[in-house]
Amino acid sequence: MANIRLLDKRRKSIKNIRKITRTMELIATARFKKAMDRASAASDYTNLITAIVQDLAKSGTEVSHPLLQSRETVKAAEMLLLTSNRGLCGGYNGSVLRLALQRRNEIAETIGSSPMSVSGKRGISALKFRGIPLEKTFTQFDDAPAFDEVAKIADDLMERFITGKIDRVDVVYTKFLTVSKQVAVVETLLPISSLAIDSKKVNASAVTDVASGASKLKDDYEFLPSAESILEEVVPAAFRARVFKCFLDAAVSEQIARMIAMKSATENAGDIIKQLSRTFNRARQSKITQEIMEIIGGVEALG
Amino acid sequence: MATIRCVVVTPEKTELDLQADSLTVPLYDGEIGILPGRAPMVGRLGFGIMKVKQGSSETSHYVDGGFVQVRREAVYVLTDRMLKPESIDKAQASSDLEKALAIVSSSPETFALKDRAVSQARAKLRLQA
Questions:
Q1: Contact B41 A221 (CB under 8 A)
Q2: What is d(CA B47, CA B30) in angstroms, rounded to the nearest whole number?
């Protein structure tokens, strides 16, 4: 029976697939740990920047900066979309894309112009397929986005915002809440709504523990050259750090999504193998039975 | 002798966290020396060399702008990049300087950009000298 050979072939190929998905799961786990370490290492900087801003505010400095002012009429709202370069990560890209397209439609109704910048090959190809023009595309970000690269994007956005080419910047990315929960979100990057970057979810390291503990004491700071000048520099730095955090979050979430997708693929492959083995054994047994019957029939016919 | 905790943080990670006798950081207009027990301060950094003194040894690093904050418990240096002096390429720095000087500045924004690039490249070159 050709069926038996066919079943065996299928079972073999599924076993191979299971090997591959299991390896991918292990790789994703290792990468997730690395990305997670990077993300928590980066939280010190954002915590300290926030601390400086708080100290500035406490010292009575009026916190105002062009990047903080929201515009009355929004004529152009840029959207930055963070997707992955590679697939096989479950609904990771799908949910971000769905949210981005929904937001784009909303913007199209109220504002009109909405240039889109996309990071990640998956997002680029998906939007190209839908015929959406892209402002800028980035494919250089993998599981370890470099700050220098992100800073370039942030600087470019800030420049266009200040010169009035765009009036708002939204970012669509997968936010990392906990290891078991990541959600696709839209956040307004510019104008900056608040300078405090919530970084409490990443386990605060020893460096920032001290920083938060000591801020209860009131200190009179000396500002060199002046509080205003510090503020002028702090706001862009905080913005860059915030964009960087979005990229880090997206990288961590991508690895988690891939881990989960590959885990369920491996389990699914196991189930299929079990089923196929059962059918295969049954087919083999019935073939043997049939052959014996044939032999007995032949013997009886002779005798 | 009293020591001072010195923490250098970049957006990517914490680069340094150690007890030092004193440290010198480049402010926007010149160097500032910080000893244990200094009054709280927030300062804007320029581009240049940061020196950390521990006993008889002194280590230097290049810092790329940012801020320094002196708190009761420690000195925090927030910078975009921290490099070892030996990792700075002199040829690269001088070509950067040439490029920066060649920028035509027609508006306050581009002037600020040029100014930044020039002082960055000069600070790197000074390190080598």
A1: yes
A2: 10
What are the pLDDT digits (tens) for B59-102? Answer: 888 898 889 999 888 999 999 888 887 777 778 888 888 888 88
Residue A9 belongs to domain spanning: 2-24+263-297
ipTM of the complex: 0.82
B86 inside 8 A of chain A by CB: no
User: Is residue A303 in a domain?
Assistant: no
Give the CATH number of the domain where residue A6 resides.
Answer: 1.10.287.80
Q: Are B54 and B89 in contact (CB under 8 A)?
A: no
Residue A302 belongs to a domain: no
CB atoms < 10 A from the CB of A179, how many? 11
A49, A214, A234: residue with CB nearest B71: A214
Q: Do B21 and B78 fall into the same domain?
A: yes
Q: What is the domain-level CATH number for residue A123?
A: 3.40.1380.10
Residues A245-273 pLDDT 10s: 999 999 999 999 999 999 999 999 999 99
Higher pLDDT, B62 or B107: B62
User: Which residue range is the domain that position B42 belongs to?
Assistant: 4-83
CB A56 to CB B66 under 8 A? no
Query: B68 CA to chain A: closest CA distance, Å?
Result: 10
Does residue A223 lie within any of the structural domains?
Answer: yes
* Same structural domain, A139 and A184: yes
Question: What distance lies between CA A221 and its chain's CA centroid?
Answer: 39
B17 → closest Cβ in A42, A46, A207 = A207
Q: Chain A 134-163, CB below 8 Å of chain B: which residues? A: 146-148, 151, 159, 162-163
Average pLDDT taken over every residue of chain A: 86
Check whether residue A250 and residue A271 sit in a common domain: no
Q: Is residue A34 part of a domain?
A: yes
Q: Which residue among B28, B39, B73 places its CB closest to the CB of A210?
A: B73
Residue from B63, B64, B69, B70 whose CB has the most chain A CBs within 10 Å, to mutate: B69
Which whole-number Å values give the CA distances from B98 to B44, B113, B123, B126, in the listed order?
26, 14, 14, 15
Q: Does the bond joining A191 to the residue before it have cis omega, within 30 degrees of 0?
A: yes
Q: Which residues of A touch B7 (CB under 8 A)?
A: 207
Quote the pLDDT of residue A228: 84
> What confidence category does residue A62 fall into, taking pLDDT thresholds of 50, 70 and 90?
confident
